[in-house]
Task: inverse folding
């Protein structure tokens, strides 16, 4: 099973003077079970692409298949199937904590499942397990107002609300933006665990290339609405032409490795995490003695 | 007398209500004119609350904030204070109001009744300073995040602000936008001698400051030069912060017995120290 993008193009305000092509001819397969990053600078089409993944918008041409179902159904029966397929995708938008609204954490997370018309027991079970997945203690937090929490905790509550819908594919737009270093680390650990242990397919947009290298098995790079690369991050970030064309910067650790290489230190080209650099230097130092 | 003085400032949200929350307790420090200060702290440590006190968007529950000898508690001072202290917020889309870049930058000066000839001159200079002259007749929504933030900065400059407070102004930007904004801030500090207060979660940005102030649970946890602050890695980690990348790598190498100083902040410094070590071998 997979999300398949077939020659997807999207034009905003077609046939008006403000017409703008946001995506052109994107084809890619996002396999179930994968951990995919989407990178590109502001205006490259990232958000437009994300909105295609759960049928919020439909391609102007081309199609999006979710587990073989076309998200743009024609006719009543097909549309019903498309809607069900789109429900497989949980969307976490940027700054999702701004969408919290209920009086208590429990009610906020229960909002989605309740809208699905589930039984009270089922709702409670889902809220509990979603909170557990997001490392929020059920007893300690269920009756707390979401607005009394820290930024990082609020974001966990918001993501738990999406997880309570039990999506097979979880799409996150800049999940760690604006969090402090600890919040960032905790949230990336949690997302990694969702992927490894709960086998949720993860698709995330990030401006943080270090997160992309650390987490993703493949990165999809967009520039001016076109697909520039779709490969493992180590490969993509070694190619300075791709980075330049996409207006991206390599991960910080890669820049450090480069700086050291220029000073004559033999650091391998795939060293893109700080621990890679530490171990390379240790090796060189011990050889030197 | 310092340019900005914060005296025993406490701030309590929802005082007397169920959600009462003490965001700042007895914070005192001062900022000299032309200084570049970075403020670090986790989410909820009181950074934004503190920033909003400096131009009187929030008033202290107790204590005083003095800007250029003017107390923010005194209502008649507030407009003069806001003219001297400009703020740039996190979300570039929430602070642009006009349909054309130039008009947006002119909004503040027009509001305080500045003379039209001077407005034109100030707007022109401000756009020049942030490198946005080329975009002066653009609609703001066609700009990138970094460009929008530079327009917001120009808006403050056109008021001839003496101090800029940037509250996580780079958090929502892509790497290129972040770099544009940081370069602008550094230039304003070095060439125009504008006092800068930079609130950030990016340790690499804080390295550029003259002085770092670390907040934790509404109190000042530490204050000093970047070198002082970032030589206290353990303590910073305990309160949820981290070191800049080069310092982190150096620290791990030191733990493995490599004789490096614990004051390395930048990639260049790490390179130089390692090079020295190599030559000594």
Result:
């Amino acid at each position: 099973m997979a999300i398949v993008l077939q020659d997807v193009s999207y034009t905003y305000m077609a046939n008006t003077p403000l017409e703008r092509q946001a995506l052109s001819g994107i084809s890619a397969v996002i396999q179930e079970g994968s951990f995919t990053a989407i990178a590109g600078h502001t205006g490259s089409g990232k958000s437009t692409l994300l909105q295609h993944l759960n049928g919020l918008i439909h391609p102007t041409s081309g199609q999006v298949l979710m587990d073989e179902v076309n998200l743009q159904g024609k006719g009543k029966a097909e549309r019903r199937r498309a809607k069900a397929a789109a429900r497989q995708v949980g969307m976490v938008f940027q700054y999702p904590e701004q969408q919290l609204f209920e009086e208590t954490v429990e009610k906020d997370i229960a909002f989605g499942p309740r809208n699905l018309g589930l039984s009270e027991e089922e709702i409670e079970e889902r809220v509990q397990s979603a909170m557990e997945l997001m490392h929020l203690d059920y007893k300690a937090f269920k009756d707390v107002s979401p607005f009394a929490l820290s930024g990082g905790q609020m974001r966990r509550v918001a993501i738990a609300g999406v997880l309570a819908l039990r999506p097979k594919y979880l799409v996150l737009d800049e999940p760690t933006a604006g969090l402090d270093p600890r919040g960032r680390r905790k949230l990336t650990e949690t997302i990694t665990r969702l992927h490894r242990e709960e086998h949720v397919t993860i698709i995330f947009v990030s401006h943080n290339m270090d997160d992309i290298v650390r987490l993703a098995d493949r990165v999809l790079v967009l520039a001016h609405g076109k697909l520039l690369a779709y490969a493992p991050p180590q490969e993509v970030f070694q190619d300075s032409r791709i980075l330049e064309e996409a207006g991206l910067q390599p991960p910080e650790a890669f820049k450090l490795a480069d700086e050291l290489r220029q000073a004559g230190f033999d650091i391998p080209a795939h060293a893109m995490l700080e621990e890679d650099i530490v171990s390379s230097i240790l090796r060189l130092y011990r050889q030197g003695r | 007398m310092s340019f900005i003085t914060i005296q025993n400032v406490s701030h309590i949200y929802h005082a007397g209500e169920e959600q009462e929350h003490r965001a700042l307790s007895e914070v005192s420090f001062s900022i000299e004119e032309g200084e570049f200060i970075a403020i670090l702290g986790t989410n909820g440590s009181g950074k934004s609350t503190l920033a909003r006190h400096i131009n009187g968007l929030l008033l202290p529950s107790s204590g005083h904030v003095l800007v250029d000898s003017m107390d923010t508690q005194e209502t008649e001072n507030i407009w003069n204070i806001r003219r001297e202290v400009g703020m740039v917020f996190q979300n570039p889309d929430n602070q642009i109001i006009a349909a054309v870049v130039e008009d947006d930058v002119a909004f503040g000066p027009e509001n305080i009744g500045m003379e039209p000839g001077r407005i034109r001159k100030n707007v022109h200079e401000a756009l020049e300073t942030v490198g946005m002259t080329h975009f002066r007749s653009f609609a703001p929504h066609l700009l990138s995040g970094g460009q929008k933030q530079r327009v917001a900065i120009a808006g403050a400059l056109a008021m001839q602000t003496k101090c800029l407070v940037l509250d996580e102004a780079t958090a929502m930007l892509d790497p290129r936008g972040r770099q544009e904004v940081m370069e602008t801030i550094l230039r304003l500090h070095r060439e125009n001698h504008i006092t800068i207060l930079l609130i950030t979660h990016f340790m690499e940005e804080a390295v550029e400051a003259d002085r770092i102030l670390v907040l934790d649970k509404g109190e000042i946890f530490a204050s000093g030069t970047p070198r002082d602050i970032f030589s206290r890695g353990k303590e910073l980690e305990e309160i949820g912060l981290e070191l800049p990348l080069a310092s982190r790598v150096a620290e791990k190498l030191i733990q493995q017995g490599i004789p490096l100083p614990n004051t390395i902040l930048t990639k260049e410094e790490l390179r130089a120290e390692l090079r020295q070590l190599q030559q000594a071998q």
In short: Chain B has a mean pLDDT of 93. The interface with chain A takes residues 19, 21, 41-44, 90, 144-146, 168, 171-177, 179, 201, 203-204, 240-242, 245-246, 248-249, 252-253, 256, 258, 267-268, 270-271, 274-275, 277-278, 281 of chain B (CB under 8 Å). Strands of chain B lie at 4-13, 21-31, 36-40, 62-67, 70-71, 85-88, 163-167, 195-199, 211-216, 219-224.
